[in-house]
Amino acid sequence: IRLFEDTNIEFIDKGITISLHNISVPMPIGRNLNLIIKEAFTNILRHSGADRALFQVNYSKDSDLGIEISDNGIGIDTTIHYLGNGLNNMNKRIGRIGGTIEVIKNLNGGTTILMNIKIPPTEG
Fold first, then answer.
1. Which of 19, 23, 41, 66 has the smallest CB count inside 10 Å?
2. pLDDT per residue as tens digits for the range 8-50
3. Distance in angstroms (rounded) separating the CA atoms of residues 65 and 88
4. Residue pair 17/32 in contact by the 8 Å Cβ criterion
């Protein structure tokens, strides 16, 4: 939230509830997710031209964590084969933790990033 405080971008977060505090995310997964999310937010701030950003979290009983990050900016051209270091790093990091990522250019403008990660159940 602090990244967007002094900007013209309205930041909307959904699905972040107290019940998520009970989920124990292993350190490698948490670290990589943190860096992926930070990169996505940085891309919105630097490149999108957006005035609205959405961060949504969904967690299922099957230990699936779904994350959506979207904006209403100019959108990313997903037809270009060259991806910048940021997007390449996001792909590598999600692969390290066994998750998936999809980057979509929205038809009405903006970009949506969808991630899905399996969080191992905690023991004890």
1. 19
2. 999 999 987 766 777 788 899 999 999 999 999 999 999 899 9
3. 21
4. no
